[in-house]
Design goal:
Shape: elongated
Order of helices and strands: HEHEHEHEHEHHHHHH
CATH architecture of the largest domain: 3-Layer(aba) Sandwich
Strand order of the largest sheet: 2-1-3-4-5
Number of helices: 11
CATH topology of the largest domain: Rossmann fold
Radius of gyration: 24 Å
Strand content: 5-15%
Distance between the termini: 54 Å
Number of domains: 2
Number of strands: 5
Structural class: alpha/beta
Length: 242
């Protein structure tokens, strides 16, 4: 009977620490805040993706850990910048994401994150991981960190090699190429863009020259071959995930 009591009381029910959760909409953030607060943590939530708002929050309060929500897609670049900003201010940073893509985690680590928390995990597991971090214990070994960063570098090199010709396209030239990929003719592009046919032809010639191809068909085929049509153009070239 006594042994049973000792085992039960050996599980910590409280933890000291201060946590900032940066998440604009996640239900997980609310649940996590409630549980951590009940355990004795000081928890604040920042429902903003503004770098300036994050800086203001960090300058006005002390935090042991900052949890930042990130997702692949148009907001990824800003999410990683939030991670970088928080890490530069001193607190330990962990990312929260629906995606557990290895390269997404690697990019987060590269930005300064020490761990990744999956929104699909049970809340108890997520709390346990946060508590582990609050105790100063690592969730990522030095070897694992180095391996992730090496894979990210290899990915960047491979992607940059494939996308390099396309990176030389101007914004407008990229738009024209996308319209060509959608099956639009030069005349139709000119009509919908409210410019002359001659202007669009000049832009198409620039696209062909920069991509090193001799026809619109070849340019479109090359774009599809390397997956240039898939990424969101707001993302860095090295992090174009679906």
């Amino acid at each position: 009977m006594n042994d049973h009591k000792e085992t039960a009381t050996s599980v910590p029910t409280s933890i000291d620490g201060t946590v900032l959760i940066v998440d604009t909409h996640s239900m997980l953030a609310g649940g996590l805040a409630m549980v951590l607060t009940a355990m004795g943590c000081g928890v604040r939530t920042l429902k903003s993706s503004s770098i300036d708002d994050l800086k203001a929050e960090l300058s006005g309060h002390h935090f042991d850990i900052v949890l930042v929500r990130i997702q692949p897609g148009p907001t990824l670049s800003n999410g990683l910048e939030l991670v970088r900003t928080a890490a530069n201010e001193g607190p330990m940073v962990a990312v929260i994401s629906e995606s557990t893509h290895e390269l997404l985690f690697a990019a987060s680590v590269d930005a300064g994150a020490a761990a990744m928390l999956a929104t699909g995990d049970p809340i108890g597991d997520t709390v346990d991981r946060v508590v582990t971090l609050l105790r100063g214990q690592d969730l990522l070994s030095t070897v694992e960190r180095a391996d992730l960063l090496e894979k990210l570098q290899h990915h960047r090199s491979a992607r940059e090699g494939r996308f390099m010709p396309f990176e030389s396209l101007s914004r407008r030239e990229g738009e024209v190429l996308r319209l060509l990929m959608d099956g639009m003719s030069v005349n139709k592009i000119a009509e919908t863009s409210f410019v002359s046919v001659g202007t669009v032809r000049t832009q198409v010639k620039a696209v062909l020259r920069k991509l090193g191809v001799s026809s619109q068909v070849a340019a479109v085929a090359l774009a599809y071959k390397i997956g240039w049509d898939q990424p969101d153009t707001d993302l860095p070239v090295d992090l174009r995930f679906r």
